[in-house]
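Lab notebook, page 48
Experiment: co-folding of the full assembly
Goal: obtain a model of how the components sit together before planning crosslinking
Operator: M.T.
Materials (sequences as entered):
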Amino acid sequence: MINSIEQLKEKLKLTEEELSWKESPQSLPVLITDYYFSLLDPKDPNDALRRQCVPTSAENREESLESSDPLAEVEHSPSKRFIHRYKNRIALLTTDICAQYCRHCFRRRFTGNFCGPLTEEDLKECCSYLEKHTEVKEILLTGGDVLTLSDSAIYHIVSSLREASPRLVIRICTRMVAVQPQRITDSLISVFKSFPEAPFYLMTQFNHVRELTDEAVKAVGKFIDAGIPAMNQSVLLRGVNDNADDLEELCNALVFNRIKPYYLFQGDLVTGTGTFRVPLERGLEIEKQLRERLSGLAMPLYAADLPDGGGKVPLCGSYIEGKDENGWIFRTLDGQKRIYPDPQI
Ligand SMILES: *Cc1c(COP(=O)(O)O)cnc(C)c1O
Ligand code: SF4
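Observation: model returned without errors.
Model output:
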C-alpha cells in the first residue's frame, strides 16, 4: 500500500504536475493498493490508471461554479450518514474509508476524512427512518467503500436494515473489485449468502478495460455465482477513458464478464476535479458513437447529476426531429428520416 508522495517518488518518476500537488485539509489522501499499482505502466506519465490514483496540482485548482457538494447531498441528508434525494431510494454512507482513493472522487467532502464506519447509533437512526418511510424501496450501501468494513460489520448492517424493512433492495456499491479484488473472500460472500432472500445488486466502478483483470473478473464472478447481479457505473474521465474506442472495449468486456454497463457519468462539478471533466459536447459525441457500436446490453446510460441537487438526468441526443400532419419525424442512427404516426383510432 502506498500512502504518500514520498513513497510514490521512490517507485515512479513523478512529473512536475504530480510533484507540485499540495496536501491540504480539503484534499483527498493518497492511497494506492499494491495490486492496483502493479497494473500501472510506470513508463507512461499519462497512463489511464495512473491518472486515477496519483494526484496532480490540478486538484489544487478551483473552477468557478465548483463546490464541495454540488449535488446538495448535505441538504438532502435527514442524518449525517444517509442521503434521501429520490423518493424511493436512499444512500447510506457506511464509512468514509476506501481501499484506494480515486482522484476524481465526487464525494470528497466526506470521503477520506477519517470519520470511520457508521456507529451503532447512526445505524439505528437509519433503521427507524426506514420504518417510518415505507416509500423507500432501495438502499445503496456506499461511502467511502462499504467493503472496507469487516465481514461481521457488513452482516450486522444488512441484518439490521432487513429487520427494519424486509423488502428492501440492497445495492452494494464498491470499487473494491477494481482496486483490491483479494478482499472478495469466500467468507465475505458467505455473509451475503446468509440472506438468501435478499435482493442484492453489486454496483462496481470500472473505468478502463485494464482494470478488468483476471483477478477482478474472478472477484465479481463470486458475487454473480452467489446469485447477485453485477452492474457497472463508469465515470467519463478526461485522459482516462474519454474516447469511444476505449469505452467500447470496456463495455464489451464488462458484458462478456456478466457485468451490465449501467451508467456512464458526466463528471460532477466537485472542487478540484476540473482536470477530469469532459466538455459536454464531446461527451455527447462519444455517447452517439457508442450507441452506433454497442449492443443494447453493452450500452450504458450517459447521465449527469445536475448542480444544486437537480438530480440525475439522461444525456443523449434526441432522435425525434419534430412532428407534422403525417406523424413524428425521426432520425435513424445513420442519419436517415422515418415517419412514425400516432394511432388513428
Ligand atoms: C445516484 C443516486 C441514487 C440512485 O439513483 P439510480 O438512478 O436509481 O441509480 C440514489 N441516491 C442518491 C443520493 C444518488 O446520488
Ligand atoms: S472508491 Fe468511490 S468513494 Fe472511494 S475515493 Fe473512489 S470514487 Fe470516492
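Interpretation: The pocket of pyridoxal-5'-phosphate (ligand 1) is lined by residues 83, 85-86, 89, 91, 140, 312 (CB under 6 Å).
Next step: discuss with group before ordering constructs.
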